[in-house]
Write a structure and sequence with these properties.
CATH architecture: Orthogonal Bundle
Distance between the termini: 11 Å
Helix content: over 70%
Number of strands: 0
Number of domains: 1
CATH class: Mainly Alpha
Structural class: mainly alpha
């Protein structure tokens, strides 16, 4: 297990450095700057701002200074929010984003497993075709389309749920969680169905049935452990994707999370905020992938040596 963690980390650290490096140079290639605005700024004020934030130094010098500080956990100050550091803003928005991701994970896992296991047990019946068709629709429908549709239907037309906010009104977390988790529920359903079908055809399942065990016990005790390994492998990237992909949902529903900060930073050319959140999201993706690898190794010992 320790060797598995060391191997994954030996790959993860260079990946983080590459991601940070590419992001650093890409944001500086984008038109405009962090202090461009509708308000006219005098050349002297602009010069002073560039000196304060070291933007007048050569790009190579800026790069090495930033990377040196980032390796120590210092992502620098926000250009657009004076007096606030990027680390502080990340810690402010992260709890909201994690809470949203948690609700989305619960929705996706419960719905996906129920649909996938049912489809596998009832293979080639209506209870197989219908949930898989819905799953395909969920995979094909992007978040930026599903969110407004749910908002219009349940928020405006039926007036059942709030259309924006977080912790302001009862039920204001339902639509964002469904919007964010719908596609992942569809993936989990298809993976669960495929894994269960493969497991249900194994010899030890036929042996369990021959011993006279009930179908419920065969499925829930013997088949689930092996059949859900593809789902477990998917959960690490899925959780990371839910956290990293929350910026669309947070923007649609006006949720004050880390994803919304990221979008605002992109529009404001807030270099340090873009870099800090990109590195942080990348680290989360690597972390949850590592957790997924550990979970797979626990469920399937043969995977420990791979």
């Amino acid at each position: 297990m320790l060797n598995l963690i060391i191997r994954r980390l030996s790959v993860a650290i260079p990946v983080l450095v590459i991601v940070a490096s590419i992001t650093f140079f890409l944001v500086r290639l984008a038109p405009g700057g962090p202090f461009d605005s509708e308000k006219v700024v005098s050349p002297q004020v602009l010069k002073n701002l560039n000196e304060v934030y070291n933007l007048n130094a050569p790009v190579s010098e800026q790069y090495f200074d930033y990377m040196f500080n980032a390796l120590q956990g210092d992502f620098g100050p926000s250009f657009r929010y004076p007096g606030r550091s990027v680390s502080e803003m990340i810690l402010t928005g992260l709890p909201v984003t994690l809470e949203l991701a948690m609700y989305a994970v619960l929705f996706a896992t419960i719905l996906g497993l129920i649909a996938g296991i049912t489809a596998a047990i009832k293979k080639n019946t209506f209870l197989d075709y219908f949930p898989m068709a819905i799953a395909m629709l969920g995979i094909c429908m992007p978040t930026f389309l599903l969110g407004p549709l749910l908002l219009l239907l349940f928020g405006i037309e039926l007036e059942l749920l709030p259309v924006s906010g977080w912790d302001d009104l009862p039920g204001d977390k339902v639509l964002p969680a469904i919007t964010l988790g719908a596609a992942y529920a569809a993936y989990i359903a298809r993976l669960a169905r495929g894994g269960m079908l493969e497991t249900l055809n194994q010899d030890y399942i036929r042996t369990a049935r021959a011993k006279g065990l009930s179908e419920f016990k065969v499925v829930m005790v013997h088949a689930v452990r092996g059949g859900l390994i593809p789902v477990i492998a998917f959960m690490g990237p899925a959780i990371a994707g839910l956290i990293g992909g929350s910026f669309v949902v947070e923007t649609i529903f006006q949720i004050p999370g880390l994803g919304r900060f990221y979008v605002e930073a992109a529009f404001n050319r807030d270099y340090t905020m873009i870099l800090g959140t990109t590195i942080f999201f990348s680290a989360l993706i690597i972390f949850f992938n590592l957790l997924s690898d550990i979970a797979i190794a626990l469920f399937n010992p043969q995977a420990r040596s791979s």
